Amino acid sequence: MNELARPPAASLTQEEAFARIRLLRSPNIGPVSYAMLLARFGTAVAALDALPDLGKRGGRQYRAAPADRIEREVDAVRRAGAKYLFHDQPDFPALLAEVDGAPPILTYRGDLSLASAPCVALVGARNASAAAVKLAREFGKGLAEAGFTVVSGLARGIDGAAHEGAFPRTIGVIASGIDIAYPPQHEALQERIASEGLLIAEQPPGTEPRGSHFPSRNRIIAGLASGTLVVEAAVKSGSLITARLAGEAGREVMAIPGSPLEARSHGCNHLIREGAVLVQSPEDVVELLTGFDGTPRSTFREPVSQFDFEPGEMAEAQPADIAALLTTAPVAIDELIRQSGESAAAVQLALLELEIAGRLERHAAGRVSLA
Amino acid sequence: MNELARPPAASLTQEEAFARIRLLRSPNIGPVSYAMLLARFGTAVAALDALPDLGKRGGRQYRAAPADRIEREVDAVRRAGAKYLFHDQPDFPALLAEVDGAPPILTYRGDLSLASAPCVALVGARNASAAAVKLAREFGKGLAEAGFTVVSGLARGIDGAAHEGAFPRTIGVIASGIDIAYPPQHEALQERIASEGLLIAEQPPGTEPRGSHFPSRNRIIAGLASGTLVVEAAVKSGSLITARLAGEAGREVMAIPGSPLEARSHGCNHLIREGAVLVQSPEDVVELLTGFDGTPRSTFREPVSQFDFEPGEMAEAQPADIAALLTTAPVAIDELIRQSGESAAAVQLALLELEIAGRLERHAAGRVSLA
């Protein structure tokens, strides 16, 4: 086993840190089942040992990711000059840790203390208007000067301008691995953020960004910040997903308004109409977020669509309540999915929860019953 | 006595109609004291008879306006092709009648049935941007096509464009007398509104518009409509007074957003930030106002500043609660004003209320006591 790139907290042995990475990278394990297994078995080492027995007789297969692949990952993280951060380490961003389905393991480069300062997320369209790009830069600058760390996603347009305005008080969260520059136009900006600010990645090194990674990346952006400001965005856009995630997490959702004659403003106007706080200046944001106590003034609560996430991707469904549907007579999992009206992922997660509690028995042909 | 230009309702004699006009035009009488006197004495004829005795021994002077001046007014209204409308006549707009301090007598030209349809007020800046003028015309057109009557103030910029878009379903409320065209650039528009739509004036004929008349005119605009939409306005503007009056009256307050980089949008953005509903299209307005039941979705409730009105002008203060300060020992009215912290107008109105209830005694040198 390689040494981990960053010495884990005193209570976290090298072996346990390695096991945690390996557990999270195992098939069919996401943040929710990871947390469930850690809670049930105490350590990732013990959870990995138990993994093959879970779901053994039919149902979902659980097997640990190959150890040599994890060794290569740890090595790649070190070569990228990056470090690991685990959810229960003191430096793990407190607000992010509160978010449902937040990634329990991150990789990062740069100044981690930036994530301990009050954070505000600035996001928006890639094809933003010149006026909005100017606003993003001004808001980035004004908020950094007011002591906030500006979080964004390193995309072209609004994201890039927000980072540039805020230097060096800025965090870039990327959808790729920590060692992959994306988009290509922002390679230099990403390197500058890593050296002067803070660069964060959830995916393992070597991961090229995929469409399905962006909602999970957006969850981290929204989760780090006490408020998310959408600078300019059309109605169907990733920025609105970030705003929904911020609202779902109980954070402030803010938007800069624009004329109805400008389609690129319609997303922001929609957010405001649905309860996001209208802001016109960095001072408006500072006033709103200073002393944020977990009770947002924003009333924006638009549900995050299931379709925003790919099943089995980093953002896992929450376990469904299906114990009531079970008896000691075996029943097909497909039947449980039909009867509960829940997604397959949510039902599988609920079965895993029952299984590690010793209440589930698995039978042939994908059938289950109460133990 | 001249005939009134319009035959009053069956229950309203020519003599009583004349007396009502005369009572309202009398010095120190505004809508609130007018209503108080009418309630106390049953008819304006009786109230006029009682007027000289009120406040006789010191305090405010109440004397009827000269009858010959009222005769000339009634004649001028007829020559302008206009008619009178009294607050208790069936055609008096129902929503306007509900507003505190609404004018109990109006003059009008045109199609009074337009005021019985659902009304929406469209207001905004005189020096509006070309884009906002275009929006005002489009909203006027779209709302008229949806069956709404569009109410505005005939000012240059937004008002004029709203009227033009809505023809013939539009009401112009002017701050001058019914026979005075203002602003001069809109003389033809005003004439067209009078002949195809509906033109309403609160001030007596011959009255040139004064700054102090505009807030009262704005109260009528807001009062006629179930909702007021501000299309474009700076922070300090008459349009925001109209919005405050609409909010105070429990009506919908709506605004079209704009970029923070455009100072002419800041008033609208401020309204939205404080609870006005953001609208982007005529359909948004139709959706909001259709079936308006008196419970607005807008939460905008910014107080109407006393400074928006000139003391003694058409918008009277509400009577203060000063009976508790009085005993049977005479006290100076100035002292009551000091002790109550109320405006002089509010205290005088409260004293009038006590006096017509027979509870007040007036003494020399402006002193009063309980009777």
From TrEMBL, chains A, B:
GO biological processes: DNA-mediated transformation
SUPFAM superfamilies according to UniProt: MCP/YpsA-like
Domain Smf/DprA SLOG: 84-289
One Pfam family, short name: DNA_processg_A
DprA winged helix domain boundaries: 315-366
Family: Belongs to the DprA/Smf family.
NCBIfam families: dprA
Protein name: DNA-protecting protein DprA
Species annotation: Qipengyuania gaetbuli
